Amino acid sequence: MVRTTSTYEIALDSAARFLARRRDQEGTCADDLAQIAAIETWQRADGVRNSTCVPSYARTIARRLRSQAIRAIRSERSRAASVADRIEDRAEVPLVRIEDRWHRMHAVLEVLDEALAAVGSLNACLVRGYYEGFSCRELAERYGLDDTVVKARLHRSRARLRALIVARLPAPDA
User: How far is residue 96's CA from residue 20's CA, in Å, rounded to a whole number?
Assistant: First the structure.
């Protein structure tokens, strides 16, 4: 069979109607899956014996894609739930090392916003930007400062943040 625009349109229509009848709450994107199924059908049109088989071929591909998507979504949900359960059980709570002491991550995050507010708005923006991946040069250009000024402010701000966080944290767990 020859690949034509009508082959793609027939496949897209067939896959879209098939997926529309099977709307689910899993979060699959039926429109995206229909387009992928139509493209795969069109790419493999040479393997289809005659044009009357194109709709069923597209439905088969759409069904397989939908099943794969649902399995992936369910797997991700169960993995996320198991991580949340472990954290809630405190069995695997992430730890952070600050000045030779280990602290629970949730405790550090609770005091981090207060500590960032205490170092000043410009310094807090510089620290956030640096940890988001911006270089000192990029931060200097963004805030109209010299590179050396940004480096000095970052050094002082991180030291002050460390001291503020340690002062506000509860005693670390043994």
Answer: 48
